[in-house]
Amino acid sequence: MSNIELIDSHCHLIFENFERDLEDVVSRLRSKGIKKLVHACCELTEIPKLKKISHEFNEIYYSVGLHPLEAKKWEQSSKSLLRKSALEDRRVVAIGELGLDFFKNENKTQQIEALIPQMELAYELKLPVIIHCRDAANEMIEICSDLSNKGKCPDGVLHCWTGTPNEMKQFLDLGFYISFSGIVTFPKAHEIHECAKIVPNDKYLIETDSPFLAPVPHRGKRNEPAFVENVAKFMADLRSTELNTIAKESSKNAEDLFKFDLLI
After folding, report:
1. Binding site annotation covers 159?
2. Any known ligand binding at 209?
3. Which of 99, 191, 218, 255 is the most buried (most CB within 10 A)?
C-alpha cells in the first residue's frame, strides 16, 4: 500500500475498455493511495452509469454536463435534466465537462449555446465547473470575464492544461484552478512544463484523463487512475520538491474546489 494520498481530479471509467476489469482498476488505484477521483461526464446519457459506479466504489465522485464536442446534443430540456441530476445525488461535485473545442469543431455558436447555460447552472447550484478548452483560450477567457464582471462566474478548473503561461495567468486571475494530466510528462511539452513550474501551490490539480493520454512511462497504453502517481512524480521533479508535497498540495486543492467532505 502507498503511504501517500492522491486525488485523480479527472477521469473516464465507463468507456468500453474498462468494462471487463473495473474492479482490478479500482484495486490498483487503491494500492497507489488514490483516495478520491472525479469521473467527468461527457454527455447526459452517461449520468445513470456514473451514478451507479459512484455508489459501487467509495472513491468515485462525478460531474454532470455536456462536452463541447457533443454540443449538437444540447436541447431545451438539458439544463433542467442536469439540475435534477446534480440535486438528487450528493456524489455530484461539479458541472461539466463543458467548454469550447475549436481544434476539432467549427460550430462555435452551437458550442457557446451549450456552454453558457451550464455555467449559469453551476453558479446557481454553487458547484464548480470542469472546463475543457482546446484552441479556444481567448474565447473562453472572454466568456468567463463577462460572467465575472456580472458577479456570476462559478469556481472551476481548466482540466488537462495545454495552454501557455500567459493564458494560464489569465485563468488564474479569474480564480480558476489548473489541472495537469499525463501530457506534463511528455518530453516536448515545453510550455506545459513552464506552466507546471510556476503555477501557485494552492491553484493546481493533477489528473489522468483516463483512458486517454497515459503518462510516461506508460505511453501507448490505456491510461488509468493509478497512473496519476506518475503525473505527481513528474510535477515534483519540475517543481524541485518531493512527491509527498505534490500529493498534499494537489489533494488539498481538489478538496477545496470539489468539497467532497461536505457531501458525506
Report:
1. yes
2. yes
3. 99
